[in-house]
Amino acid sequence: MIEEDTQDQDTELTESNVTFKDLGVVDVLVEACERLKWSKPTKIQKEAIPLALEGKDVIGLAETGSGKTGAFALPILQALLDKPQRLFALVLTPTRELAYQIGEQFNALGSTIGIKCAVIVGGIDMFDQALMLAKKPHVLIATPGRLVDHLENTKGFSLRALKYLVMDEADRILNMDFEQEVDKILKVIPRERKTFLFSATMTKKVQKLQRACLSNPSKVEVNNKYKTVVNLVQSYLFIPVKYKDVYLVYILNELAGNSFIIFSSTCSNTQRMAIMLRNLGFKAIPLNGQMSQEKRLGSLNKFKSKSSSILIATDVASRGLDIPHVDVVINFDIPTHSKDYIHRVGRTARAGRAGRAITFVTQYEVELYKRIEELLKKQLPLYKTEEEEVMQLVERVSEAQRYTKIEMKDAEAKKLEAKKRKRGQADDDTEESSGVREKFKQKRKK
């Protein structure tokens, strides 16, 4: 289901009463927007949609939550209505979760006009995806690596007739070292096509990509300065590194009843914290890049459906994902790149709602934190805590940490056991072989 706040209307709408119809969107798609409760176009949509409908290549510079998907999906669907064709458009995106989310939006907007979409990402069986591609969907949403796998290995699959290419979150696609894959894709798609490039920032790599793949593009820029929305309350907490878990539990208790995303820098720490918090009675689930695609989607769906109120994630969840009901973002670990702070805290205070962001700063992270304040051009207030109350939790948290270590060791042991068993099955004549070797040794001794 598409959440209505993919239109980040509080930050993106001006006071004018421009409608989607005024932008040139056809009635059937205007009705689809109304069904999704997109009452008015956002700034990026107002700027980009008319240019795209005129048939121009578009560069859109806009942050996550600005309504970018609508800005490229509506013109593509309108062009598709005009000239129906299979394998009509390709959307490249950096992460699997974002690919699924864009797929949902295309399906929702195109539900009444029979649009077929396919999401092609890693972590899913190649053969199943090859069957999807054989059906020739109208729109492909893909991560670059897996798409190249299919272009090189799936018989009969070609993008030679493609009419539209979209690169969403282009800065991230390039930062994640997908340059080679993007080059390979650009070589096998037609030069005569429409291209939309959307990015949060105009880096040197994005400028190079723009020159390589866009033809006389129109540039649309929305909120190019790094800033956070007005209704986001930001603060920091300076704490000794050994008490980080204790302060986390204190804040979760103090702000109980809210939904949280807790950002951690490593996959293993998301796992550890989720187990520890569950041992303390919290409904917490992890989300990280080492989880299988099925588990990642499962975690997201549990959080979206509110059956879990705490999502503990790496930066895989910091951009692009549209989760409407996040009340509090906690930066358990400070991001190495200060710009990622903006994306993390942008998960809350969306669509006019209030939100809160709390950043943990230990004695080892002062320099990183100062960079964030420089980026924001302001000093954040200290989050007030009662130290006595915090310290009362030390014993309970220490016990939960002990149980967590045991659980993680057990889980690791089970994994190793399963691997050994697999190896044993693959080499099921081991015992016989060792018996033969023993006989051979005895013969040699004689």
UniProtKB/TrEMBL annotation:
All copies of the Helicase C-terminal domain together span 247-391
Q: Which GO terms describe its cellular component?
A: cytosol; nucleolus
- Superkingdom, natural source: Eukaryota
Q: Spell out the InterPro entries in the cross-references.
A: DDX47/Rrp3_DEADc, DEAD/DEAH_box_helicase_dom, DEAD_box_RNA_helicase, Helicase_ATP-bd, Helicase_C-like, P-loop_NTPase, RNA-helicase_DEAD-box_CS, RNA_helicase_DEAD_Q_motif
Q: What is its EC number?
A: 3.6.4.13
**Residue ranges of the region described as Disordered:** 415-446
Task: Decide whether keyword Ligase is in the record.
Answer: no
Write out the annotated subcellular location: Nucleus
- Specify the Helicase ATP-binding domain's residue ranges: 49-220
SUPFAM superfamilies annotated for this entry?
Answer: P-loop containing nucleoside triphosphate hydrolases (SSF52540)
| Name the UniProt record assigns to this protein | RNA helicase
Q: Which gene encodes it?
A: LOC106063271
| Motif mapping: Q motif | 18-46
Indicate where this protein is primarily found.
nucleus
Name one matching Pfam family.
DEAD
Question: Does the keyword Hydrolase feature in the UniProt annotation?
Answer: yes
Which reactions are catalysed by this chain? ATP + H2O = ADP + phosphate + H(+)
The UniProt entry's sequence similarity note says:
Belongs to the DEAD box helicase family. DDX47/RRP3 subfamily.
DEAD-box RNA helicase Q domain ranges (all copies): 18-46
What would be an example GO MF term here?
RNA binding
Which UniProt keywords are present, listed alphabetically?
Answer: ATP-binding, Helicase, Hydrolase, Nucleotide-binding, Nucleus, RNA-binding
Q: Which GO biological-process labels does this protein carry? A: ribosome biogenesis
